[in-house]
Amino acid sequence: MLxxxxxxxxRTPLGWLQxxxxxxxxxxxxxxxxxxxxxxxxxxGFERALYDSNTRLHRSLQADIVLLSPQARNLQxxxxxxxRRLYQxxxxxxxxxxxxxxxxxxxxxxxxxxxxxGVLVIGFNPNKPAFDLxxxxxxxxxxxxxxxxxxxxxxxxxxxxxxxxxxxxxxLTTEMERRTIRISGLFQVGAxxxxxxxxxxxxxxxxxxxxxxxxxxxxxxxxxxxxxxxxKQVAMALKSHLRDDVQVLTHAExxxxxxNFWRTNSPIGFIFSLGVSMGFVVGVIIVYQVLxxxxxxxxxxxxxxxxxxxxxxxLLGVIFEEALILALLGFxxxxxxxxxxxxxxxxxxxxxxxxxxxxxxxxxILTFIMCAISGAIATRKLQSADPADMF
Length: 391
Hints:
This protein is α+β, with helices and mostly antiparallel strands. It is 55% helix and 17% strand. The protein contains 15 helices and eleven strands. It has helices at residues 2-10, 14-21, 23-54, 56-60, 84-89, 134-137, 160-167, 203-209, 231-241, 251-265, 267-297, 299-307, 312-349, 357-383, 387-390; strands at residues 65-68, 81-82, 95-109, 116-124, 148-152, 172-176, 179-187, 198-202, 217-218, 220-225, 247-250. The protein has a nine-stranded mixed β-sheet with strand order 6-7-5-8-4-3-10-1-11. Helix 3 runs antiparallel to helix 11, helix 10 packs across helix 11 (267-297) and helix 11 packs parallel to helix 14 (357-383).
């Protein structure tokens, strides 16, 4: 290892000298690599935000096992099933409690602009905390009052003034389903690709807002199990005990159920994956053009090296050295620009766009691979260079 380091120290940095000699070409190359990195960062960020934003409610549920209709596609497209299945679930050994939860997408009047917009409404029994959300659990008593709801402060839209007023202790009123409701508190979940925001209230208020909805027709069943029991074993017992008009999932499977919908049944997941691939391909093309132009511009010098005895692997090493330098220097502005765009996107959409160490490592590895592939393609002409043809 020590010998290799000494050899590298003695070696002339020919790749860097060639790149830095043509500064305008170097800047163009770095801009192209940074652009490809930004494309990959943004697509990976959107893809992660897609899964994170759509499963935040799932992850906050206080349930070991979830019951839902087999017709349910995701949280925004829930079908209902009979509440009777919850009573039957209580007969299964290991089940401690089974509580209903109601979901409905609805149109309400924005309390600030009075324009109609969509919102996801969630109703649950306030005597049995359903979410691991301190803001919600501290206001359970509030939503037992008629027509009182809690509003998501992370909702997407013009709600800043309304949220500020609620923070000051004011109760706002607005309309939903031709009924006046009172916004008496806030909680924090955030917007997703499926919903701009959500409201939480008691199951009784939910049924008041949606009078056509029967209390026996529920969206989710939240099962808690007794200490000492394994969720998977109890879930298996529930599957064999209940009829096939209800689906039994553990908490982890319910989160994956939502992810799988966006991954396989929605074009959005495919589009983001395609975007990463396109960024990679664009980067390969840009770096190849830069390295190919460099080889063409210095083909006589390379041929001279071969004529005086340098082997092909030395000259190929120069090209790969250039590729690695370009990858490293192009990554720095790429990650800097992406950090700014993440913050801009987060502020504009309330989506959880955050830079992570793992994503940074992922993109820099892709950048090195991208530049290495470009270097490998660019060296084909160099290998065939014959000094006799040059002079």
